[in-house]
Description:
Blueprint: H1 7-16, H2 19-24, E1 30-32, E2 35-38, E3 50-53, E4 58-61, E5 67-68, H3 70-77, H4 82-93, H5 107-132, H6 134-142, H7 147-152, E6 156-158, H8 164-169, H9 173-181, E7 185-187, H10 190-196, E8 200-202, E9 207-213, E10 219-226, E11 234-236, H11 252-258, E12 264-268, H12 271-279, E13 285-287, H13 295-304, E14 307-313, H14 316-329, E15 338-344, H15 350-367, E16 370-371, H16 372-381, H17 389-403, H18 410-423, H19 427-433, H20 466-479, H21 492-495, H22 499-513, H23 519-524, H24 532-540, H25 548-565, H26 568-581, H27 586-599
Parallel strand pairs: 12-13, 12-14, 14-15
Antiparallel strand pairs: 1-2, 2-3, 3-4, 4-5, 6-9, 7-8, 9-10, 10-11, 15-16
Helix pairs in contact: 3-4, 12-15, 16-17, 16-18, 17-18, 18-19, 20-22, 20-24, 20-25, 26-27
Amino acid sequence: xxxxxxxxxxxxxxxxxxxxxxxxxxxxxxxxxxxxxxxxxxxxxxxxxxxxxxxxxxxxxxxxxxxxxxxxxxxxxxxxxxxxxxxxxxxxxxxxxxxxxxxxxxxxxxxxxxxxxxxxxxxxxxxxxxxxxxxxxxxxxxxxxxxxxxxxxxxxxxxxxxxxxxxxxxxxxxxxxxxxxxxxxxxxxxxxxxxxxxxxxxxxxxxxxxxxxxxxxxxxxxxxxxxxxxxxxxxxxxxxxxxxxxxxxxxxxxxxxxxxxxxxxxxxxxxxxxxxxxxxxxxxxxxxxxxxxxxxxxxxxxxxxxxxxxxxxxxxxxxxxxxxxxxxxxxxxxxxxxxxxxxxxxxxxxxxxxxxxxxxxxxxxxxxxxxxxxxxxxxxxxxxxxxxxxxxxxxxxxxxxxxxxxxxxxxxxxxxxxxxxxxxxxxxxxxxxxxxxxxxxxxxxxxxxxxxxxxxxxxxxxxxxxxxxxxxxxxxxxxxxxxxxxxxxxxxxxxxxxxxxxxxxxxxxxxxxxxxxxxxxxxxxxxxxxxxxxxxxxxxxxxxxxxxxxxxxxxxxxxxxxxxxxxxxxxxxxxxxxxxxxxxxxxxxxxxxxxxxxxxxxxxxxx
Length: 607
């Protein structure tokens, strides 16, 4: 879709949405006082700790800590992107999603809608053609595919003629152009036009068709496999406004429809692998459409599951593909995620192997897949002679640029430990020599005039629990936005130079400018900002149940105390400290003189 979704529309959408209805349509909720409860859909539990507040339009789990608005729930539960979640709620409310620069869908949006409708019509055409083709049905039977599985994945057949689809869906000039935009037909080139006449011809001919569906189940592209011998064996849709090969994953939509809690995803290479594995009860396989795994693929995979297993043939080509997948995975490897590699016996792919040995044996292979760390170290070790010092040094040097691509954290430290065992060197020493120590690089030289490791004294900080008071004030405000009406937002909150106080001041101004904002609406305004996660936490924090007037008085008292603590004396102390330690700029000197004159009339100034 073109353009950003206007903020005003998000507010209206949330105002028309009841989070209890949205969540209740997916999770059985039970009334519990003023709130609703259920077993958390995001982690296994026997005692309900998942609560939904109709007043706040917010949900929170006291077990695993998840929380958010109706939009957040759809994003996490249905695995939708933010725009997709907005469209889902808008559809429930009977609203059209506008974009910045207009009050409704623009020409590009309408064109995309037309292409989605065209792809759906093509999908139905191919499915109808499969029912009418004994030859295509015989091919699927020979591959061991059941009719129920073919129907679940919407398998179809593109007839052998050059213009079967073209005649059915492209009777007009506009229809032919739309088919070309969708990647379903190809325009003849000048040479072809002279020999065969002008016009277009079907891209997919005499092929079993595998529709590729997006997160909402809409067909965005196709993969077609020849029935007999022919090249290419598989043919994919080209890049179109709907279809981007480096982003889509075949079978992901069907996986999400079949499994509610997806703990693991198996990445295979072929469409038929996905379909056959599903027929044997392995419903968590997806395919990368015949292309190498991309960072976008991985991001999509990890949004769905924390355990990703790459499955490759055991031949040379399969191992080369696996190593490319490992290199792509490194920047996304971190604690909480598992990346593994499964190599099949030569001569087998998942389709044939699961048929030969069955589901249980195949899943035993998956359980025994190589973790990324073992594959990385083992692969590099095979290229060196570990019995010699030179070989172990070479192993460390080969591993260094790969480990450097892994984000700093526990996972990288553990991988360094694994490498250190092979190199026979203490892990901290190895990390320092390779420039992969805890600072993320080689030891940095000290600044001239300072001693390495010396610590500059820090400005004085309040020790009266101010930070906690800021959090309490923000929690009260985001849970009861209307309480802001009774609060003045002193300029001192912003002048203090404290980010928490600045956020509190901005929240007060937002709530005062629009008194009817709900908690959900207020939180959603911060979705694209770094403070969003913390504000959502505070919106879910347990607070005493008070009357609105008492909440307003509590908030006003907290803001008043914070404003007093954040007076000019605090800023003066900060500027004096900076002047002594590193000097002030001209603007800061001017600010210090003005603050001192206001705070201490008649006194001298520091310079």
